[in-house]
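Let us practice reading a record.
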Amino acid sequence: MTTATDLAIDPVIVLSRLAARSLIASALFAAAAYWPARMWGGADVALAMLTAALVAWIGALCAAASVAWTIRGGPRAMWFGALAGLGVRFGVTLVVALALRAAGVVQGDAFLIWVGAAQLAVLIADTFGLVRLAASLSAEVRC
């Protein structure tokens, strides 16, 4: 029989929860930033901002995969996965953002600024999610 403890450390469930949290944060960022981006720079800047929110979510998804991959090792392994995930997140985000910029998919340096802002917003949400996950793992270890 599957227990609540087993579900809490199931990598697929952890990945889906962290990915959903990141997606919600990215969508909230895009919703909040759309109107200012459109007013300041027009449709091109608004499109760049929406693309930046997607790029930030892709990086967050890769970081969540790192945590999910190490979750069965307990709280210490999860934190190692979270730290490794930071490197993965920033690396993937940087490569994807620069590739889109170089390919001409998005125009202007505003895109890179929006990537940084979106990355910060999603990173804050992900940090809260990881702290809650670590707290639940620590509570399970004490029981």
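A brief commentary: The chain has a mean pLDDT of 89.
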